[in-house]
Structures are given as structure tokens and as C-alpha cells.
Amino acid sequence: MTGLATTTSAATNTAPQQRGAQGGGDPAAVIAARIRAHAAGLPDVDAERVVTQINDGLWPGATEAALRERAIEITSATVASEPTYSKLAARLLAEHIAEETASEGVVSFTSSIAASRENGLLSDELVEFVAAHGAELDAVIDEAADDRFEYFGLRTVYDRYLLRHPEHRTVLERPQHFMLRVACGLSQSVEEAAELYSLLSQLAYLPSSPTLFNSGTRRPQLSSCFLLDSPKDELDSIYERYSQVARLSKYAGGIGIAWSRVRSRGSLIRGTNGHSNGIVPWLRTLDSSVAAVNQGGRRKGAACVYLASWHADVEEFLELRDNTGDTERRTHNLNLANWIPDEFMRRVEADAQWSLFDPKETPELVDLWGDDFDAAYRAAEAAGKARKTVQARELYGRMMRTLAQTGNGWITFSDTANRTSNQTARPENVIHLSNLCTEILEVTNDSETAVCNLGSVNLAEHCSPAGFDFDRLEDTVRTAVKFLDRTIDLGFYPTAEAEKANRKWRPIGLGCMGLADVFFKLKLDFDSPEALELSTAIAERIAVVSYETSARLAEDLGAHPNFNETRAADGVLHFDHYENARVTLGRRWEAVRERIGRTGLRNSLMIAIAPTATIASIAGCAECIEPVVSNVFKRETLSGEFLQVNRHLIAELKERGLWNEQLRQAIVVAEGSIQGIEEIPADLQARYRTAWELPQKALIDLAAARTPFIDQAQSLNLFQASPTIGKLSSMYRYAWKAGLKTTYYLRSRPATRINQTTVSKAKPAQIETVAEDVACSLENPETCEACQ
Amino acid sequence: MLLDPGMDLTLRPMKYPDFYDQYRAAIKNTWTVEEVDLASDLTDLAGFTEQEQHLIHRLVAFFATGDTIVANNLVLNLYQHVNSPEGRLYLSRQLFEEAVHVQFYLTLLDTYLPDPEERTKAFDAVNNIPSIKRKADFCFKWIDSVFDMRELETAGDRRKFLLNLICFAACIEGLFFYGAFAYVYWLRSRGLLDGLATGTNWVFRDESCHMNFAFSVVDIVRAEEPELFDDEMRRQVTDMMEEAVEAELQFAEDLIGDGMPGMTVKDMKSYLEFAADQRLERLGMEKRWGSENPFPFMALQDVQELTNFFERRPTAYQTAVEGKVDLDEEF
């Protein structure tokens, strides 16, 4: 079986190998020549070293294809010593892909379309569009653009995105064909297709994975996330939601679903005169249902359940991901999020009590926020409706424990979300939850499932050591917004509820990635005032251009149907909610406000910063707005493990003449940290602190400063190597105070680790004879005199 | 002294606080078999070639008994002679972890081998598969060498005990298991058997800790009784290591045969020798082989993981988090 194929059928996977064997000649010699050719022009790559390693590991019947695969494996594992090997690995992989597609007769864009069409993979519209403009489109392809990929990016495209033959499982398009196919699927003219293709092939902007997977195909499900309102407190509604979730999951959508309307444990069921078992059994069914629906054949479905923090089952909810206790009350496939009102946080601050309610008794709470919620909540307390009263800090502590132990149980703030949203001008329009990645905040109700189409600008591509290119950013954003808006009309919707909401609100979510690369390129510390200023300025620019573009689209095509229900219709824009917003483009904002007053907006929401895990891999940049977790780490994905290294750091170390094997080992031994490594100067140690080493306050401050320009939300991970309840409770309280609408995973690190296999040079520990002379230790306070 | 016969019950003042620290760190990494999803592995297995089938069947057959043997030695020998209540706390925890591993491999075999006959054969591998029997015999030899000793009275007794301890840490956990993990990560590097790899990540982490504990016992005994670790002892350790490498190598020949892409007997030999050298160095001895690690996928295990949450369950969380709600801490 060849590892390059991610499919599961050995018989089909071996096809390219066999072809290689028929090529004649000595396979090892052929591959050696190819390695030498590809290595030409790559600085610091030693082709002979790779060739020797290949020859040392030969096995009987080794084919060209299998040896090339081995060469790819060897070179891609060498990136930690010399990042340029990634390019060599990518070139070898590109050669493999070209050979594989050629075996299906694919040699050009039009022939790739022909091959996919023959296998019934493409929409009629796309086929007709390409048929009408074949020669022009073939000329658009930039063959040299493949060389922009790092290995992991190209590998991700090959493993996951290229269309495959239904039986052979061979790929039917090369990476550039794929990008032009995606562009054509969203375009009305060759000029438009070329415009979008140009951004994609430069890796300057990438739409989200569903669009990359499905654009131009027979089932163009282009949306990333779906937000479902809580089922009503009745059996039929609950089962109807399972069915909606299943249909949305099937087409690779990420699911957010609220559960706050469903009655809690012990609540009376009138029809049978029995008592409810609460929400846990329902969520167990949801858990199984989500796991059963297989997305695109391999990945399991994914969903996040939101529960309001006043719901009486909240304590059991927080235990759903524990790995101890009754397995009948655990849901290992569901993600969990807390939907927290301000009143709860105020009571945590005041160390006051908190009441938990059965929504059957207090159905009004689900659809209220702000002062109305506070009043209704207190009225319910006064009326003695609480099922249980706890110390607010005790519940808050439990939330923190769940975060620390599972990373799950995300903290999201319901009042902040509603207060600042463009969609919530009218009391009947309420946001009840965020999505699977906590960057989407949209109104839902029983008959409307919120949808969002996402895309992200690669900021790294808009930055050189000379500075950040705001002009180019503007061009990119204009194109991105136009095409994101387009996806709303072209998309296939798995449920009527989703289509209804999306056509009415037309929300999109433009985000970014590679912010950490920008800071590295410009030599800015992540927690410096300059970094905060630049990051906020970028956010403001993306926002203002998006609003301008949406206003222009409204002038051309009309405002979204219920524009009149939005705050923008009253002249209120998102940043108006923030007194301290760092607005630097005041005149442009006033101009766009005036245009919106005349003709409205095409989209009710425009900005959301998604986690970008996979598309940042393709683009070879840091994920969204995140600092790097390590300077050397591996990415674990469904198709294997891939070594990643901070190219910026190694380039700087080389520049200063410091890079060598000894230093590399020291960094690997330190698990990718460079703190305290003597040879590395202090300025580099500061700049290349990892996410574990940066003050988390800085991450929150950056996020808070950009929030006025994020009309939805951002997927903000926070990091604590060794979390304690004290640290976490301070951190999330600060996040709330800073005005964040949502937070995402809490990442932490294992308490123990494996013995490193390939670098550790462990020696016997020097042991003092402890029996006689007990060492100073916190374990021995009573015998230690040194501290007294 | 640590190996003095007896049943020390006194935790304060604590003589070996490092044992207690290791115990607490281990508790933070509790995992359960139910968290491992083996479903996707079945799809992979269905597409395996005959050669790959053979390899995976042999591999799981080894796993079927490996941890049980380690657990037996722990209870019958180690627990008896490591005379430190905090040390025995760690060993109790280790015993629990071995039980989880046994359960994991039991579940794995039940899942991978639906045919009852084949399943029975796999569980009986120590008797009917020669390449596994040889490894098991090696383990039994070193269990038997100390089995009848109730107390470690003489220097000779203590040397025998140390050899048993080193055998289980350096040869069985540190070489047999390390060898077996290499096959798992080799498959994983081809995008195969993700479920097995997830469980293995956790087992690997536990086994690393077990090995560290055993080596820290050796360190302490050597500090307390330096005369025990003499030239004769060093010779015996080297011989034992060579025998273990031989046994693991014939297992490799059985599994790999003429070789598969990226996995040859020649490379496996270098890897095993490289690992064995590391164990010797950990014991303060000279390298015996001087081989290099040929497996790029093993180098990958040395760095931090970053998991795409939608694809794999991250393995990097802790249990038993401590502290109280406090709104004014640094973070």
C-alpha cells in the first residue's frame, strides 16, 4: 500500500507503483537523478545525503513510485534541520501528482474537467462554462505556482481536496486545476475566474474547506457552519432536530446547537405523569447520531452543544466529556459550550449565589438578553421558581475544571453577543448560541437555522520585511467579499431552515490567518504595543473594505431582504458599540455609513475569524490570529504526522551564524522552546516565545482591541501549560471584562511525556544519598531548615 | 536503604519524594480505553495486503500478552523488594496503568480479529508463535531468576534483583515495546490505523514513565550501594541487552520478511541497536553498537503534537487539576 494515497483500498492504491515499475531502468537510479534535479537551486539541500539514505533502505521489488515516496518521507522529516527540504519534498510530490493525473489522461485544465465530468463529479453549469471558454481558461493556469507550496500544504491539497476517480481513487486534477475549478464554480466570466484564481494560486486568500471541496461539483454545499436553535421542549421537536443535524453533517457542515429550551431532570411530564431524566439522555442520542454520520467517507461529524448557564442540568452537562464516571452519562463526540449571561459573571465577582431553573418553568429566559433577561431572571428567583441554588463561584470553578481537564466547555457570553450584533435590533431576533468554532454569532429560531460561508485572507502573503501592504490587502478583501456573497446564491442547502435564514440575512464571515508570520517578518514581539496597533489596524482595514464592498453590492444587487430589521438600518455600525475603539479611518467609515443609509448592505454580518486549521496548512502560514505553539512541532492529521518548523526563527539564526545541529537538538529537547538556550540572543528569545510562554493577557488584549471591527466573533484559543482553577478563573473573568464575545479551546499540556527516542542523551541522575540527608522539597516542609 | 528487606510504612519524613512526584504526575494522565475510537481502523484493515495483514496480526499477538507479563513481574517481584511506601504508591499506580493497557489490547484484538479461532490463537501466541515465544521465554527467564527470593539479604541477591529490574525497564519496556511502537508509527505515517496510534500514544507515554521510574530506582540503589554495580554486573547487562536485541530482531524478520516500503529488517536492526545504546547510556555505560536512528517517523514522536481537533482527539490534557476560584491571579 502506498502511503501517499489516503484511500483505504490497497488494490487501487498500488496502481501508480506498478506503472512506475514498468517504466524500465533501475528505479533507484531514476529516483536519484530526479532528486538531484529537484534539489538544483535549493540552498542548503544535500541531495546526496537523501540518495544515500534511500539506497541504504532498499527492499526487493521497490518501484520508482515507492522510492519517491520514501524520498518524500525522508526529506520532509529533515525540515527541522533545514527547512528548505520542505521544498524538495513538495517538488517530488508535485511530480508524483503529475504522473498520477497523467495516468487518467489529465494534462491540462480542460482535460482535468473532462476527466471529472466523465466520472459524474461536476455540475452541468461548470462543465458548460468551461466548454465555452476552454482555451482562455487553460491559459489562466500558472504551472509554476505549485512551487509556492511547502510540502505539508501540497500534501494536504493532494490528500484531501483534489477530486478523485470514484473507483481508481487516483486524483483527476493537479493543484492548479483544482484552484481554477473552485474559481470557475463561483464565477460568471473568465475575468472573474482569473481574478479569484490569482488570489488562490498566490495563497493570498482561501475560502473555507466546504467551498474548496465542493465548488463546481454536483452538490455544491459551500457553507462551513450551521447554528440550530434549541429544540422545543417536546419529543417531536427533539427528533426533528436530530434529523436536521444528520442532514447538515452529511455534507460536512460543522454544527452548533443549543439545548437550553429542554426541561431539566426531575421536571414533571404531564402526559405520562412521570419525571424527566433531563437533557443528558437526549445529548447521548445526539452524540451517537453525530458519530454515525460520516462526512465525505472518513471524518466523523462534529457538533457543539450550547447550554445557558442558568439551566438546572448545567452541572451534569459539564461532566459530559469526563473520562471517568458513568459512561451512560458521557458524550465523547460532542463539544460543549457555556452560554453565559453577564448576571452570572457579576455574581461570580460578588461571590453571590446563583439560581438554576427548569426551562419548563421559566421558558421566557431563553429568548431574553441584557436588562430584560436580568429582570426576568430576578423575577423568577423572587417567585421561588429556582430548582437549585449554588454559589456562583462553585459553578464557575466547575466550568474551569472542565476546561482544564478536557479543553472543552467553551466560555461564551450571551449578553455581549446580543448587545453588539447587527441582527438583534428587534426583540424577536435573538442570538441563542455560537457555532462549532465560536466565531459565528447569528440569530436563530425554531424555523431558521443560521448559516455562514467563510474565507480567510493570508496576511503573511501581504507582508514583506519592508512593511505590511495595506493596498494589496484592500484588493484581496474586495474580491473575497464579492465571492463570499456569491456563495450564498450558489450553495446547495441540506435543509429548508438553513436556506431560509441564509437568503434573508446573507451573512458572510471573512477572517484572516498568518498574523504571527506578519509579526515575525516585521520583528515585532507578540505582546508589544506595536503588534497590537498593527493587528488592530489590519482588522479595521478588512472591516471597512468589507462594508464598502457590501454597500456597493447592495447598490448593484439590492440589500439583503430584512435589512430593515438590522441596527445598520438605524445608522448604527458595529464599532459604534465600543467607546474605546481605535478608529483611524473615520472619514471612510462616515462615507460608508452614508451609503448604507441610502441603499443598505448586501450582508447583515461580514467578519468572523475562523480557526483556519486546514487552510492555514495549505497556505503554509500560522493559524488565524494565533501565536505559534512551538518552534518545532508535528501536525497530526487523518493522513499522518508532519513535522513543522518555524522557518522565520531558523532564517534569523542562520543570518546570525548560530544555526547548527547542536542547537537544533537543544530546541527539540526543549520541545520547541528556545527560552534559556544560552547561544540564542535575548531579542530572539523574546520574539520567539511560544503560546505557552506568552502572557495570555496579551492574547486577550489583542483580541479585545480588534473586537470593534469583528461584527461576528473570533475563535480565540487560550493556553496554559499547567492550568489551575485560580489562573483560569482570573483569565476568563478578564476576557469577559475586556469585552470578548466568545473564547474557544483552552489548550494545556500533558503532565508526563514520552522519552524522546532520537535526541535525548539521558544519563544516570546524580543521586544524593537521600536517606541520611533529606533534600529540600515542598514534600518535606517539616524537615527542611533552609527556609525557616 | 531502598532494597533493605522489610515493609516500611512511614511516609513522613519522605525519603524519596521524587517517587511521590512521579506518582502524582502519572495520575494527571489518566486515560480510558473508551476514549479510543478503533472504528476507522477496520476500514483500513480491510484494504491491507497479505504482507501487511501478517505484520499487524503478529504485532497485536505480541501486545496481547506483553503488558500482562510486565504486570506480573511488578506484583511478584518489584513491589516486594522496593521498600519505600512512596515507591510502592508509584508501583500501585503503574499496576493500574498496566491493567488499562491490557484492557486496551484486549479490546484491540477483539476488534481486529473477529474470527474466534484466530483470536484464541493470538491470545495464545506465547505458546504457538515462535518469534513471540522466544521473547516471552526471555522475560520468564528473568522473572524466574528472582522468583524464589523473599528477601534481598546479600549483595548477590541485590544484583539479581537489579538485573531483573533492568531487564524489564531496558529490554522489555525499553526495547520490545519500543520496537512494537515503531511498527505502529510506521503505519501511522502512511495514514493507517489511527485508532491504534491514538491508544499507542497514551501507552507510549505511560511506558516512558514506567521506564523512568525503574531507572530512578537503579540510580538510588547505585548511590546507596555503589559496590553493587561492578564490572561483572556491567558485563551481564550488556549480554542481556544483546540477547534482547537478537530476540526482537528475529521478531522483526518474522513481521517484515523481505521488507516493505519504508520498513526493512536492516533499518529495524539499526533502530533497535540505537534504542539499546540509549538504554546503556542511561545506565552510565558505553554504547555497544553506535547505530543511528533510520526512521523519520520516530523522530516525529519527539516533538509537541498539534492536533486538528476535528480529525483526532488530542492527547494533551491533564486530570486532577487543582486550585480554587480566584479573580486576581497572574495568567
From TrEMBL, chain A:
The keyword tRNA processing does not apply. This is Ribonucleoside-diphosphate reductase. It catalyses: a 2'-deoxyribonucleoside 5'-diphosphate + [thioredoxin]-disulfide + H2O = a ribonucleoside 5'-diphosphate + [thioredoxin]-dithiol. The keyword Oxidoreductase applies. Residues 1-26 are annotated as: Disordered. InterPro entries: NrdE_NrdA_C, RNR_lg_C, RNR_lsu_N, RNR_R1-su_N, Rrm1. Residues 1-15 have a biased composition (Low complexity). Provides the precursors necessary for DNA synthesis. Catalyzes the biosynthesis of deoxyribonucleotides from the corresponding ribonucleotides. PANTHER family: RIBONUCLEOSIDE-DIPHOSPHATE REDUCTASE LARGE CHAIN, RIBONUCLEOSIDE-DIPHOSPHATE REDUCTASE LARGE SUBUNIT. It comes from the Bacteria. Belongs to the ribonucleoside diphosphate reductase large chain family. Its EC number is 1.17.4.1. NCBIfam families: NrdE_NrdA. It is an enzyme of class 1 (oxidoreductase). One of its GO terms (biological process) is deoxyribonucleotide biosynthetic process. GO terms for cellular component: ribonucleoside-diphosphate reductase complex. Residues 589-611 form the Ribonucleotide reductase large subunit domain. Pfam families: Ribonuc_red_lgC (PF02867), Ribonuc_red_lgN (PF00317). GO terms for molecular function: ATP binding; ribonucleoside-diphosphate reductase activity, thioredoxin disulfide as acceptor. Keywords: Deoxyribonucleotide synthesis, Oxidoreductase.
UniProtKB/TrEMBL annotation, chain B:
The active site is at 105. The chain crosses the membrane at residues 161-186. Keywords: Deoxyribonucleotide synthesis, Iron, Membrane, Metal-binding, Oxidoreductase, Transmembrane, Transmembrane helix. Its cofactor is Fe cation. Binds 2 iron ions per subunit. It catalyses: a 2'-deoxyribonucleoside 5'-diphosphate + [thioredoxin]-disulfide + H2O = a ribonucleoside 5'-diphosphate + [thioredoxin]-dithiol. Its EC number is 1.17.4.1. It holds the Pfam family Ribonuc_red_sm. CDD domains: RNRR2 (cd01049). One of its GO terms (molecular function) is metal ion binding. Fe cation 1 binds at residues 67, 101. Fe cation 2 binds at residues 98, 173, 207, 210. GO terms for biological process: deoxyribonucleotide biosynthetic process. Belongs to the ribonucleoside diphosphate reductase small chain family. Provides the precursors necessary for DNA synthesis. Catalyzes the biosynthesis of deoxyribonucleotides from the corresponding ribonucleotides. Tetramer of two alpha and two beta subunits. This is Ribonucleoside-diphosphate reductase subunit beta.
